[in-house]
Model the fold of this input.
Amino acid sequence: MPGAPLTRDNWRSMQVPSVCDAACNLPFGLTATPLEAVAPAYLSPPA
Done:
């Protein structure tokens, strides 16, 4: 059905964990940051 809100592929991808643990190695020298640390900057109005 075209335009389905959830496809079989979407369902299959949701069955796989998509969050890394604290010891994961991210590419390009990136470091994981908790959402709680960055959310206030995203939610505050621009200065």
